[in-house]
């Protein structure tokens, strides 16, 4: 293995394998797309050798090509030496990654950070945009921990354990019940709450541990250290900045703040109940004073958390290896101390204290919903201002994609938290009415789900009608594309339908816009209804018209049932993915798209695989071209093309000029350029075309993901590839050719021809020329 790596990377111990002026070895670095594959499939050879890397991500070659640099004129080989970079284990590896489904709202809100519109000269407005997203992400952490507190503290320890009928049905709560345990030591309300606080505290610690562990496994690879390019804003895109793919400082800082926020949420839930009891007339003055001091300390710590989140964003202009030790270590420690004091305070003996009704603090969920709505609205205003500064006609929703996605993240968090609370309440209460259940707002939020589903069904109907119209229009185009073939109506309809369905991807922004807008309006209505009536929708509609009352009762019952069903499906899918590799790969595809971006707003989001993959590719290209002076084509399919572009941006300018880029089935413009205009907009892609030696892009009309780059004045896009390759049976293709869509681009002869043209344009150069990484800046070995 070491010898294979030595030959492939350095050309052997005697120096470069070629001399300037010789044809040299050509290398094609293949990068697969979403879902992953095997090196044997990528290289079309059952015998492969790992050149460099580990079990998580690695570069492979065919066994016959291990020492190809020493035999540049080997006639047995046609075309360039293929290498395969396999990164699928970064997103769909072992079964524990199925648990990342629970982090879905965190991932979605992190995407909103990167969806800001492009703007020049508005640095303060850009910083305000990032600040608002980080605050929205903080509310999601508080919401998740508050939901855990609702389940463990309110429903289980406070309501069920404090009610004889409920405690009798659940014997495991008997030692917490005053009646069942005959006034046992743990039956005091404060001690019950202190014991139940272990659940949300453990959840917070688990999130902290996963964030810290995944950073070590995925995001600790250091990019090539180099000087930033001489432009004030880092060029048309920030992806070329030296520190873009190394966000250690911000992730550590946000991890400390969010961990402290979770612990403070638990402490406030426990301490507020005891303090409310102590403030009653005739209560103990000492405990009343201690309660006030403790609540003031919790408020001060919460203010410190918000300050830490607001104080600093990402540091991208240089490779920042420092840590803010004062916040990273001390803030969670202070919050843990306050939590411990809150548990001791609540566990103090208080004769005559009983648990009745719901746990004090129902307004928490209403406050979180109100803050989230305001943050999304202000974020929309800021995004609109940025879009007007530098309008981009291709940007989705006229620059409002980020606020719309942030709204969906908040809605996901509300549905998940409300679903858990509602299901646990129904399970504890059974068919009776012994406990009051979760806060009224959660019931209102469940009740708005049926109207939202009606809107979504209407959107799906519109999409189906639009697909039917497009398919009819495409039939004539299919006949023109195959003019010499005897037309088969069934074959024509199938090709036309595939093209029509692939074009629906471009209607995605409308779906997101309508869904987020309706969600915001329905959420506001649920909040107003809960605060105004303090009753469930069915109770609030009593006395109204029978139609209104019936609709409210139906929506409430159906919403609760749908939340329960969704929660069960969610858990079932996660459990299946834990055991089933195929289902785990499906979830991995979601993360392939959603976790490309670094964790810039939420530290508990699933880890960013690109912080491992992009440095891997950059180091491979830089060191190989330096050592051999040969020609290199980085060939990326689907999401692999996004990784290839990001790696090319990270190369030094002189190294970029020695690399050709071949993309196929690429979402660079169709998805990333529209949804992330500040980083993949027209200016960024134009600069990439200008910086690399040459670039060619292949796409099909039947591909729902890949598309053209649409760069003005640049010959990047090839004409749409024919799909299928043949309309009917031919001498070369006696069986019907399949419609390939997004897959198997190498099967088209155009692929090999375009690769040959790219290699013909490249010329070998002196390995000593250009900016290259020094030996002392080698990448750190991957964490164990």
H/I helix tally = 26
Q: Could you give the order of strands across the largest sheet? A: 2-3-4-1-5-6-7
Low-confidence stretches: 1-23, 766-784
CA radius of gyration is 29 Å
Portion in strands: 5-15%
Please identify the oligomeric state: single chain
- Considering DSSP H and I runs of 4 or more, what fraction of the residues is helical? 55-70%
Summarize the main sheet: 7 strands, mixed
**Secondary-structure-derived class:** mainly alpha
How does this model look, in words?
- 50% of the residues are buried.
- Residues 1-23 and 766-784 have low confidence and may be disordered.
- Among the domains are: 26-67 and 76-90 and 608-761, 3-Layer(aba) Sandwich (Rossmann fold); 449-595, no CATH class.
- Helix 3 runs antiparallel to helix 12 (401-429).
- By secondary structure, the chain is mostly helical.
- It is globular and about 95 Å long.
- The chain has a seven-stranded mixed beta sheet, sandwiched between helices.
- It contains 26 helices and seven strands.
- Strand 2 (48-53) and strand 3 (58-62) form a beta hairpin.
């Amino acid at each position: 293995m070491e010898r294979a790596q030595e030959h492939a990377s350095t050309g052997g111990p005697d120096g470069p394998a070629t001399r300037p002026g010789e044809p040299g070895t050509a290398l094609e670095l293949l990068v697969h797309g979403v879902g992953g594959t095997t090196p044997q499939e990528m290289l079309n050879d059952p015998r492969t050798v790992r050149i460099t890397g580990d079990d998580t991500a690695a570069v492979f070659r065919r066994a016959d090509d291990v020492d190809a640099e020493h035999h540049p004129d080997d006639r047995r080989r046609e075309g360039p030496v293929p290498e395969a970079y396999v990164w699928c284990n970064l997103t769909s590896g072992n079964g524990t990654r199925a648990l990342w489904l629970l982090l879905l709202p965190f991932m979605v809100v992190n995407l909103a950070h990167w969806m800001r519109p492009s703007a020049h000269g508005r640095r303060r407005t850009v910083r305000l945009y990032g600040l608002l997203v980080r605050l929205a992400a903080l509310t999601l952490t508080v919401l998740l921990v508050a939901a855990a507190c609702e389940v463990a503290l309110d429903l289980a320890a406070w309501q069920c354990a404090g009610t004889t009928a409920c405690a009798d049905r659940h014997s495991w709560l008997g030692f917490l019940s005053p009646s069942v345990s005959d006034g046992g030591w743990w039956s005091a309300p404060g001690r019950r709450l202190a014991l139940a606080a272990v659940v949300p505290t453990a959840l917070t610690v688990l999130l902290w541990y996963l964030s810290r562990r995944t950073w070590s496994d995925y995001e600790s690879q250091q990019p090539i250290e180099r000087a930033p390019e001489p432009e004030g804003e880092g060029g048309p895109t920030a992806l070329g900045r030296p520190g873009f793919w190394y966000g250690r400082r911000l992730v550590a800082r946000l991890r400390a703040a969010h961990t402290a926020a979770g612990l403070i949420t638990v402490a406030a839930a426990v301490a507020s109940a005891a303090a409310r009891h102590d403030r009653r007339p005739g209560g103990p003055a000492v405990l009343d004073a201690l309660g006030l001091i403790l609540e003031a300390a919790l408020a001060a710590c919460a203010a410190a958390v918000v300050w830490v989140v607001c104080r600093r964003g990402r540091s991208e202009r240089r490779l920042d290896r420092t840590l803010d030790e004062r916040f990273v270590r001390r803030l969670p420690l202070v919050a843990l101390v306050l939590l411990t004091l809150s548990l001791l305070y609540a566990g103090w003996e208080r004769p005559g204290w009983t648990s009745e009704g719901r746990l004090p603090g129902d307004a928490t969920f209403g406050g979180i919903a109100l803050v989230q709505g305001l943050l999304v609205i202000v974020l929309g205003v800021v995004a609109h201002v940025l879009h007007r500064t530098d309008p981009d006609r291709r940007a989705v929703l006229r620059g409002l994609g980020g606020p719309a996605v942030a709204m969906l993240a908040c809605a996901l968090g509300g549905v998940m938290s409300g679903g858990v609370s509602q299901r646990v309440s129904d399970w504890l209460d059974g068919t009776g009415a012994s406990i009051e259940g979760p806060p009224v707002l959660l019931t209102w939020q469940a009740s708005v789900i049926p109207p939202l589903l009606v809107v979504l069904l209407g959107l799906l109907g519109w999409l189906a009608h639009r697909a039917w119209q497009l398919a009819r229009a495409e039939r004539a185009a299919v006949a023109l594309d195959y003019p010499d073939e005897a037309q088969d109506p069934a074959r024509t309809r199938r090709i036309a339908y595939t093209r029509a369905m692939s074009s629906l991807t471009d209607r995605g922004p409308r779906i997101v816009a309508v869904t987020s807008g309706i969600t915001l309006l329905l959420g506001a209505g649920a909040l107003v209804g809960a605060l105004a009536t303090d009753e469930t929708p069915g109770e609030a509609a009593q006395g109204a018209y029978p139609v209104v009352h019936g609709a409210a009762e139906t929506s409430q019952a159906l919403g609760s049932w749908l939340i329960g069903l969704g929660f069960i499906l969610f858990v079932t899918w996660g459990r299946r993915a834990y055991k089933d590799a195929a289902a785990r790969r499906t979830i991995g595809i979601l993360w392939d798209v959603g976790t490309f971006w670094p964790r810039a707003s939420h530290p508990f989001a699933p880890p960013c695989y690109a912080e491992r993959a992009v440095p891997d590719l950059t180091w491979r290209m830089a060191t190989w071209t330096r050592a051999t002076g040969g020609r290199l084509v980085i060939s990326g399919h689907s999401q692999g093309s996004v990784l290839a572009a990001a790696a090319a941006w990270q190369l030094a300018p002189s190294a970029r000029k020695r690399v050709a880029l071949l993309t196929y089935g690429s979402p660079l413009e169709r998805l990333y350029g529209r949804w992330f205009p500040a980083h993949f907009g027209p200016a960024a892609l134009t600069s990439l075309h200008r910086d690399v030696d040459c670039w060619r892009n292949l796409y099909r009309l039947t591909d729902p993901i890949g598309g053209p780059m649409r760069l003005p004045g640049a010959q990047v896009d090839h004409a749409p590839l024919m799909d299928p390759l043949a309309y009917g049976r031919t001498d070369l293709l006696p069986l019907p050719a399949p419609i390939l869509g997004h897959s198997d681009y190498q099967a088209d002869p155009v692929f090999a021809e375009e690769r040959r043209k790219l290699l013909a344009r490249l010329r070998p150069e002196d390995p000593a020329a250009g900016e290259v990484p020094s030996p002392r800046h080698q990448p750190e070995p991957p964490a164990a």
